[in-house]
Sequence to fold (306 residues):
Amino acid sequence: MPRLADLAELVRAPAALSVPGDVVAGAAAAGTLGRRTPALAAASVLLYWAGMAANDWADRRLDAVERPERPIPSGRVAPAAALGLAAGLTAAGVALATAAGGRRAAAVAVPLAATVWGYDLAAKSTPAGPAVMAACRGLDVLLGATGGRVLRAVPAALTVAAHTVTVTALSRREVTGADAALPLRTLAGTALVAASAAVPRAVPPVRDRRPGAGTEPPGRALQRGPAAALSALLAGWYAARYGAAQVAVAADPTAGRVRAAVGAGITGLPALQGALTARAGAGLLGAAVAVAAPLGGRLARKVSPT
Fold:
């Protein structure tokens, strides 16, 4: 039987801190934050861990050459155990999502699980790889929005998906190193992602139904106040944290720097999720989500998130 520490390394356990914020941001945007949100977030973590285990199972022969220290090629976890763990976590994640959110949650959780496995088994090494991984994260955000106004969560889903494209593009050069142009492209993407998260959300005007109050004003107003300010602050923190790592890659595009940037992109994602949550009006919850960023960074020193 593999040790718990080996399984934690297999599924990149600390990286799971970057996952619940997807669901929370989606739920906040769709106006469906509630008792079922934690269960959907837990289901999302299970599916993420399933994807990590399936990824290492699919890459076991390549890792034997490039990363022989990983749990499977080092012999600490048997390939069959990794595959069984991935399948079990997938089933548990879909079941939990269905139990918490019913058919609407299942309608997102099943395609999410299929996309995760599709990336690991087929798409990862193809030009479509970054887009497929981005779809995983986008669906993860929409999982939190099920039961509410899902369309309102689409901008948040696209923002997280765009961030994921930058991380996935960098991750393809973790072993070989990158050319100087790649981090500059991903850095530009990061700036756009941060700007998108920092822009105040447009909110519909409130109709005053009192007699003689007049008609509803046309158009939508931009959200103001502490939540909007916090959203901009967290978006800036995300950009500074992840952007600095990409600047370091541009200066020295070696494999080690690229891995560090990928790790910064993974562990820094909660700051972006927190910005999106605050942008939806849940400022305190957004700040709580963002706390996972420095915590994930510390845990990553013990178990690699990449």
Q: What stands out?
A: Confidence is low (pLDDT under 50) at residues 214-221.
